[in-house]
């Protein structure tokens, strides 16, 4: 069975729905990105799924397809400085709000991946745990948020190659944590995250996540 054949096209049959998801919440460096996507009726791609279940080449193929066929989409980011100021959860919600702000079509319902959200204006929302593997609009948002963030981290990697962001995308891998211990922090690190605090440096282990 193709992954997308298991995805539901909408939460309710009536009203315009936008799927929302974020990428980079668990990273030590870089912004958190979020996307909002409104798909047309009958949207289909055989690979569409939660972005974490796909290879980079598949995500890139889907990004181009989604951008071509979506009724409206937008991607937004919140900087490491703001993440440190308001915390990562609030920053994730803010990134989603900023993405919805940019949609050319005003949705009548937001489908949020996860179990919490700060209401956006007067648009009702539904929180759906693992929604990126259940609903096509959220899966599409997960693809855009992930691919845009990965591209940003590749850009930063050219400036700071010692941290291996081309491979770990800012996640707390062994190599990334070791680089922080040896080289210190860049302006793109989240200073309130414990591995970025010198007094809390811990021995890294190979069980740390590579990316999500």
TrEMBL record:
What keywords appear on the UniProt entry? Cytoplasm, Endonuclease, Hydrolase, Manganese, Metal-binding, Nuclease
Query: CDD domains under this entry?
Result: RNase_HII_bacteria_HII_like (cd07182)
The cofactor note from the UniProt entry for this protein is: Manganese or magnesium. Binds 1 divalent metal ion per monomer in the absence of substrate. May bind a second metal ion after substrate binding.
Q: Which GO terms describe its cellular component?
A: cytoplasm; ribonuclease H2 complex
**Enzyme Commission numbers on file:** 3.1.26.4
SUPFAM superfamilies assigned: Ribonuclease H-like (SSF53098)
**What chemistry does it catalyse, as a reaction equation?**
Endonucleolytic cleavage to 5'-phosphomonoester
According to the UniProt record, what class of enzyme is this? hydrolase
Q: Where in the cell is it found?
A: Cytoplasm
One of its Pfam families is: RNase_HII
Molecular function per GO: manganese ion binding; RNA binding; RNA-DNA hybrid ribonuclease activity
One annotated GO biological process = DNA replication, removal of RNA primer
Record domain RNase H type-2: where: 15-205
Q: Which cofactors go with this protein?
A: Mg(2+); Mn(2+)
Detail which positions bind a divalent metal cation.
21-22, 113
The entry's family comment says:
Belongs to the RNase HII family.
Q: What does this protein do?
A: Endonuclease that specifically degrades the RNA of RNA-DNA hybrids.
HAMAP family per record: RNase_HII_B
UniProt protein name: Ribonuclease HII
Organism of origin is: Thermoflavifilum thermophilum
From the broadest rank down, the organism's phylogenetic lineage runs: Bacteria, Pseudomonadati, Bacteroidota, Chitinophagia, Chitinophagales
